[in-house]
Amino acid sequence: MMKNNIMIKNAAELVTCSGFKAKQGKDMSELHIIEDGAVVIEEGIIKAVGKTEEILEKYDERDFQVIDASNKAVLPGFVDSHTHFVFGGYRAEEFSWRLRGDSYMEIMQKGGGIVNTVKATREASFEELMSTGLKRLDSMLSFGVTTVEGKSGYGLDLETEIKQLKVMDELDKIHPLDIVKTFMGAHATPVEFKGKTDDYVEFIIENVMPEIAEQKLAEFSDVFCEKNVFSIEQTRRIQEKAKELGFKIKLHADEIVQFGGAELAAQLGAVSADHLLQVSEKGIKDMANSGVVATLLPCTAFSLKESFAPGRKMIDNGCAVALATDFNPGSCFCESIPLVIALATLQMNIKTEEAITAFTINAAAALDRANEIGSIDPGKKGDILILEFPSYKFIPYHIGVSTVEKVIKNGTIVFDKNLGGKLC
Ligand code: NIG
Ligand code: FE
Asked: Which of 24, 195, 221, 415 is the most buried (most CB within 10 A)?
């Protein structure tokens, strides 16, 4: 019996989220549930999915480590497709100013915000970033995350951007979660370029991005495209260069003001456009038509006391919507998947089924990985969650609290609440 040959049987609900590409609009409501379901995983890959009876006819359970999922729901591992989880220092003080009434942009314009974290991240040693990063990944795992995206963008110089990305490489090797890396040198203008954002754009295009590409340190390129941060034209320049260098494209788009970010994402052929609180009607149509995944981050809107992105409208207009945490030290210091789902369902009028699709197959598509993760289909990675409860409907209902009992990653049980949490 090989360790990662697993059979899950008798699942009250096997929520497969079956599919190999992003689900747009109405298709987001279909979870492809098998009652009394079973899954076979061999050597880390899903081999068979079906009713328990059918699976037991074809496979001998003595060949497997068997998990009896009676009275439990089984789902694909969650994919958190937008985070900034490697950083030095914290910004609790700024959070208290925001509670007092200062806005995120006011704090940024006063020299706080992202550049504060840049200072602390430049000063942090590789080991410090590793040790805080590791703890954060452990916490994500406890919420059922099996793949996480992480961005650079707290270095804003060549050395520190590389340090952040290499920390993610090392964490990927030692932690069960898979990490997808994004270069985000255009996150803010660093103090040494204050007032000279065009020069900074030139600097990253000429001196930073080619090196990141050469060393293959990131798969995606992202830009904070926002009024008083990086303009549409600056963003376009950076992302055209990124495409030339072989990066796939993401954008922080239309977060604080309506800016044309979603439209630009569609023009650039971006894989995803993220935030979208202020997206225009045309931006919604452009994303739906071009298949850009609209990634919504409701915990950030909540934390910033902003109104939520029009998620219902995006789904009704045929967009593929993903949800993510945006975990970062400033606008959203929160990695709770269930809290994001609670906000999406209770505040944004997104259906529970749509929210599950948004955190599984659509989030996988936001990382260009819908063919390998995000659903329980034969051929995909054995990344699977067993809940403590018999239905996925408990996920928004148990507000903000994890309902995940076991996490299987690449066919190995890596987390079990009954055995104290993380197992390796
Ligand atoms: O996605 N909006 C820009 N960037 C991050 C926040 C980063 C920070 O404040 O440190 C975000 O919200
Ligand atoms: Fe972000």
From this structure: 221
Q: Which of 98, 187, 254 to mutate to test the pocket of ligand 1 (most atoms within 8 A of CB)?
A: 187
Take residue 105 and report the two structure tokens written for it: 């942009």
Nearest residue by C-alpha to atom 3 in ligand 1: 224
Rounded CA-CA distance 48/239 in Å is 41
Query: Would you call 110 exposed, middle or buried from its count of C-beta atoms within 10 A (0-12, 13-18, 19+)?
Result: exposed
Q: In what order do the strands lie in the sheet with 78-80?
A: 78-80, 145-151, 178-186, 220-225, 248-253, 272-275, 293-296, 320-323
> For residue 377, is pLDDT > 60?
yes
Give the DSSP letter of residue 263: H
Q: Is the pLDDT of residue 15 over 70?
A: yes
Enumerate residues 6+ apart whose C-beta is below 8 A from 30.
23, 353
Model confidence, pTM: 0.98
DSSP 22-55: ---GGGGG---EEEEEEEEEETTEEEEEEEHHHH
Of all protein residues, the one whose alpha carbon is nearest to atom 5 of ligand 1 is 331
Pocket perturbation via mutation, ligand 1, pick of 110, 252, 257 by most ligand atoms within 8 A of CB: 252
Rounded Cα distance, 66 and 56, in Å: 11
Give the C-alpha distances (Å, rounded to integers) separating 5 from 42, 53, 341, 372, 412.
4, 19, 31, 18, 8
Closest C-alpha to 184, from 224, 222, 220: 222
Supply the mean pLDDT for the chain. Answer: 97
Convert the pLDDT of each residue in 199-248 to its tens digit: 999 999 999 999 999 999 999 999 999 999 999 999 999 999 999 999 99
CB distance 307 to 348 below 8 Å? no
Contacts of 103 (CB under 8 A, 6+ apart): 304
